[in-house]
């Protein structure tokens, strides 16, 4: 088993170097001590979720919510190239969190919630803030579970017009679409650098008006394969395909 990962505040690892003893407390300290039951000498990783990781061992355990980490090495991961963003239409029920979880575990770099016209689920008012909070919490937990040092940010919900602007600025933009006339994503020409943006539509599909707006922004429709995936799994499958094709999984 690889060492468990715990999240610290942004900037907390600035100035940390081999030989530093770092105190982990609060909710993460409580989870490490009382839930994971880490003991002195066990390996542990601290990350800010922004690409920096401090690797070390537990030096001391205090009470139920604090331990000291003896740092043995520090690593900074560069921004990945090409960068993969998935624009995810809002699924029904808790399938949105499922999509975020599996995409994060697979290796997506950013997630954008999209209010597509055919979405049954709508984020408005307090529900929008609560739902976005759940997606962001899911990305954090999945990032830790999958031992990532760089967690995918989950942006504010975007409109179709805002998504089109995002697509227009991408190095490669694609709309996952099940129509037989769509080109296969497996053979698309991909950039070596820049931002790849994939749009995953809702269960009811992307509307003709949305397809037209995205096409005007430079995003062509592509299909994954002969089967039709649910909106909560299509982004994960596409991310895995691109990570393999771009060499990021090599």
UniProtKB/TrEMBL annotation:
Its main location: cytoplasm. This is Ribosomal RNA small subunit methyltransferase E. It catalyses: uridine(1498) in 16S rRNA + S-adenosyl-L-methionine = N(3)-methyluridine(1498) in 16S rRNA + S-adenosyl-L-homocysteine + H(+). The keyword Nuclease does not apply. Residues 81-242 form the Ribosomal RNA small subunit methyltransferase E methyltransferase domain. It is an enzyme of class 2 (transferase). Keywords: Cytoplasm, Methyltransferase, rRNA processing, S-adenosyl-L-methionine, Transferase. Coiled coil: none annotated. Residues 24-70 form the Ribosomal RNA small subunit methyltransferase E PUA-like domain. GO terms for cellular component: cytoplasm. InterPro entries: Alpha/beta_knot_MTases (IPR029028), PUA-like_sf (IPR015947), RsmE (IPR006700), RsmE_MTase_dom (IPR046886), RsmE_PUA-like (IPR046887), tRNA_m1G_MTases_N (IPR029026). Specifically methylates the N3 position of the uracil ring of uridine 1498 (m3U1498) in 16S rRNA. Acts on the fully assembled 30S ribosomal subunit. Its EC number is 2.1.1.193. Belongs to the RNA methyltransferase RsmE family. GO terms for molecular function: rRNA (uridine-N3-)-methyltransferase activity. It is found in: Cytoplasm. It comes from the Bacteria. One of its GO terms (biological process) is rRNA base methylation.
């Amino acid at each position: 088993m690889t060492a468990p990962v715990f999240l610290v505040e942004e900037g907390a690892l600035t100035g940390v170097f081999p030989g530093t003893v770092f105190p982990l407390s609060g909710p993460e300290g409580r989870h490490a001590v009382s839930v994971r039951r880490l003991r002195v000498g066990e390996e542990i990783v601290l990350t800010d979720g922004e690409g920096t990781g401090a690797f070390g061992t537990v030096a001391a355990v205090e009470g139920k919510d604090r331990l000291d980490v003896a740092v043995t090495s520090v690593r900074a991961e560069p921004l990945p190239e090409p960068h993969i963003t998935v624009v995810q239409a809002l699924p029904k029920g808790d399938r949105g969190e499922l999509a975020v979880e599996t995409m994060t575990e697979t290796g997506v770099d950013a997630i954008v919630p999209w209010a597509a016209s055919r979405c049954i689920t709508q984020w408005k008012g307090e529900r929008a803030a609560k739902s976005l909070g759940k997606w962001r919490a899911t990305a954090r937990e999945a990032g830790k579970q999958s031992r990532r040092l760089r967690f995918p940010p989950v942006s504010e919900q975007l409109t179709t017009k805002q998504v089109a602007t995002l697509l227009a600025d991408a190095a490669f933009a694609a709309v996952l679409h099940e129509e037989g006339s769509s080109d296969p994503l497996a053979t698309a020409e991909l950039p070596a650098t820049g931002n790849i943006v994939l749009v995953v539509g809702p269960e009811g599909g992307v509307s003709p008006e949305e397809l037209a707006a995205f096409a005007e922004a430079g995003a062509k429709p592509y299909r994954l394969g002969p089967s039709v995936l649910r909106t909560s799994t299509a982004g994960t499958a596409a991310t895995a395909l691109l990570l393999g094709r771009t060499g990021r999984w090599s």
